[in-house]
């Protein structure tokens, strides 16, 4: 069997059983089309079945991450037998979220990796390690604290607001500017 046939057999195989958790993502690649270099969205779908086994269940290429592309991609997965999806995890791309709501009727959750990347974009590079360690610890606690942390991280971009941010972090039980070694070691401050 040629490689192309094996790849097509893998990508079109039936999906048997329930797959309650689905992770969806895309990245952009440069490809040659008609003698020109163009950017295309390369998508991947990974799912976990009821036994906890993860599998790549879909790969695709499209012109962009528009809702119409994601709808076709997700409908293709459903047509192959993807069933029982309760939670879809992805970045916050609006087209993807809308397609998830329409096709899966499942709960959506923002991917922690994408959340962390977006949060760290609001902090200077010198603060990344400390803030990332503290944010990861807070993600293990409760959502309202994480939401407050994100608001505080956005304020960190404005140096004239540092006192306000420090006071807010301290009031919420965060002390990332006092003893970095204790934060990085994972101990409460």
Descriptive labels:
8 helices; 23% strand; five-stranded mixed sheet; alpha/beta; 43% helix; 189 residues
Number of strands: 5
User: What is the makeup of the main sheet?
Assistant: 5 strands, mixed
> What's the tally of helices?
8
Major β-sheet strand ordering: 3-2-1-4-5
Structure description:
The chain is α/β, with parallel strands linked by helices. The protein contains eight helices and five strands. The protein has a five-stranded mixed sheet with strand order 3-2-1-4-5. Helix 2 runs parallel beside helix 3 and helix 5 (128-139) packs antiparallel against helix 6 (143-155). The longest helix is centred in the middle third of the chain and has 13 residues, at 67-79. 20% of the residues are buried. Mean pLDDT is 77; it is low at 175-189.
What is this entry, summarized?
By secondary structure, this protein is of the alpha/beta class.
List the topology elements:
Blueprint: H1 3-11, E1 21-33, E2 36-48, E3 54-62, H2 67-79, E4 87-90, H3 94-103, E5 107-110, H4 112-120, H5 128-139, H6 143-155, H7 162-171, H8 180-184
Helix pairs in contact: 2-3, 5-6, 6-7
């Amino acid at each position: 069997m040629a490689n192309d046939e094996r790849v097509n057999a893998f990508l079109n195989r039936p999906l048997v059983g329930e797959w309650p958790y689905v992770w969806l993502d895309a990245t952009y690649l440069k490809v040659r089309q008609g003698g020109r270099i163009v950017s295309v969205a390369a998508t991947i779908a990974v799912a976990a079945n009821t036994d906890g086994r993860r599998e790549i269940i879909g790969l695709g290429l499209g012109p962009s991450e528009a809702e119409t592309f994601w709808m076709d991609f997700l409908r293709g997965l459903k047509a192959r037998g993807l069933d029982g999806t309760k939670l879809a995890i992805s970045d916050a791309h609006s087209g993807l979220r809308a397609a998830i709501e329409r096709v899966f009727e499942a709960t959506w959750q923002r991917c922690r990796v994408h959340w962390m990347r977006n949060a760290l974009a609001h902090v200077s590079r010198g603060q990344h390690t400390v803030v990332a360690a503290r944010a990861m610890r807070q993600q293990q606690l409760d959502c309202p604290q994480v939401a407050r942390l994100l608001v505080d991280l956005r304020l960190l971009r404005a140096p004239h607001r540092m006192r306000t941010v420090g006071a807010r972090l301290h009031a919420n039980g965060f002390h990332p500017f006092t003893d970095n070694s204790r934060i990085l070691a994972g101990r409460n401050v």
